[in-house]
Amino acid sequence: MKSPLVKFLSALVATTALLAGCGLVSSSGTFHDARLPDGERPLDGAKLVVTSKSFTEGILLGKITATYLAAAGAHVTDLTGAPGSASSRQAQLNGDADVLWEYTGTGWVNYHNETETISDPKQLWQRVHGIEKRDHDLEWLPPANFNDTYAFGASTPNAGRLQVKSLSDVAALPVPDRTFCVDDEFFSRSDGFIPMLHKYGIPYNDPNGVPAGNVTRMDAGVVYTATAKGAPCNFGMIYTTDGRVKNLNLVVLDDDKKFFLPYSGTAVVRGVVLDRYPQLRTLLGTISEHLTDELMQDLNGRVDIDGEDPADVAYDWLKSEKLIE
């Protein structure tokens, strides 16, 4: 009988083959060799499995982590780029993966089905941390200073022309100027578009709010270019750390009524592994303290826009910060 890890790896290989047939190649299993600047090896002899989700930011965080922990002396098995959120999460729950970057909002809503909106990032992390430690012996380390959450953006010319900096400013605009581009998933979410409009006092399909004709539903990737062009919408749903925000010079509008849940990036480690290698707290904390929204936009953009390999971007960034050599 195959072990859970062998089954997981087999599924990962099969999915990689399917992706390759579509012109996409998984970045799983590759990262650059390096060492810490002082030559020390605080994880010498440690065996660790690093996994990640399959979207760009998840893979980047996984590659950064795998490279840095290996530089610290660990023997790292790289399972970054696991297809879908569920497989990387399940690998960690099964004990087949040790380190995974997660998001507090994901833990709260997707993993524990909570509906309360907690706008304070620290408080949300504390709540998720407590549940995950109690239920799964997973340690959610203190989050990094980046928040990959939903937001609305506008082109720089439109933001200036309409004089908007926040969603409350949007709510104060004349009805014809309240035009939005959103994807189907965000439109339908219980914490998505329609509840957000209600929070800001401009209800959907209301002639004095946001008429249905003011909303264009489209693929999430197209929203960015449509927003940058200002047609067919003045405002588009974006993710705050997406590389296209900076590349297209979009203005991120302030969610001044704190509708959107924080999605703070957090390194998650199995409790038994952290007990065995307490050095991980300091090492992963070092990575976390360097990460910001603007940095993640830059790193994501290097992959999604410039076409660089995530392993190369991770290595170059760690070197530029003098975290490795």
What's the overall average pLDDT, rounded?
A: 91
Q: What percent of the residues sit in helical stretches (DSSP H or I)? A: 40-55%
- Determine the number of helices (DSSP H or I, runs of at least 4 residues): 15
Span of the ends, CA to CA:
43 Å
User: What is the succession of H and E elements?
Assistant: HEHEHEHHEEHHEHHEHEHEEHHHH
Outline, from the CA principal axes?
globular
Strand order within the widest sheet? 7-6-8-5-9
From the alpha carbons, calculate the radius of gyration and give it in angstroms: 21 Å
Strand content: 5-15%
> Which residues form runs of ≥5 with pLDDT under 50?
1-28
Structural class call reads: alpha/beta
Number of β-strand runs: 10
- Largest sheet report: 5 strands, mixed
Would you give an account of this structure?
The chain has 325 residues and is α/β, with parallel strands linked by helices. 45% of the residues lie in helices and 14% in strands. It contains 15 helices and ten strands. The strands form three sheets. A five-stranded mixed β-sheet has the order 7-6-8-5-9. The chain has a three-stranded antiparallel β-sheet with strand order 3-10-4. Strand 1 (47-51), helix 2 and strand 2 form a beta-alpha-beta unit. Helix 2 packs across helix 13 (279-288), helix 2 crosses helix 15 and helix 4 (104-111) crosses helix 5 (121-136). The longest helix has 18 residues, at 4-21. The chain is globular. The N and C termini lie far apart (43 Å).
